[in-house]
Known about the structure:
globular, two-stranded antiparallel ribbon
Amino acid sequence: MVKLLRVDERLLHGQVALNWVSNVGASSILIANDDVMQNEMSKMALKVAKPSGVNLAIRDIKGAADLLNDPRSADITVFVIVRTLKDALSLARQTDAIKFVNIGGIKKKEGSRLIAPAVFVNNDDMEILKQLSTIVDKIEFRMLPSDSSKSWDSIL
Length: 156
C-alpha cells in the first residue's frame, strides 16, 4: 500500500530520510525515475542515504508501476519518491496505488514561478498538476511534515 508519493528533485536526502519516512510510517522506499536507473553512482548514493531498517527499491517508472501493481505489494507500506511532476503523472497513470501526492521541492527554472515554499512551476508543470489532480485523491505542497500543508485547491 502506497502511503505517500513525494515529488522531490533531490530524491532521497536527509529531510526525507529523517523526517518523512518516520512520519509516513513506511517500511519501504521506492525511488521511481528512469534516469537514476541508468546511473550507478546515483543508485549508490541513494543506498547510502537510506535509513536503516527500511527497505529500498530503485526502479524506472514502468518497473515501479509493475512493482506497485503486484498483489504481493498490497501488504507492504511504501513511500514512493519521484524526481519530477512528469514522473508522478506517468506513475499515477500506470497504477491505482497512488492516492496522495506531496510536492516537496522543484527548483526554479526559466519561466517558472513560486507557488509554495521551494516549489517553482511553469505552465507545463501546472498542466501536469491539473492532470494529476484528476487521478489522485489529494495533492499537497510542503517541505517537511511539520510545515503547514498547502493544498492544490488553494493554489488553483
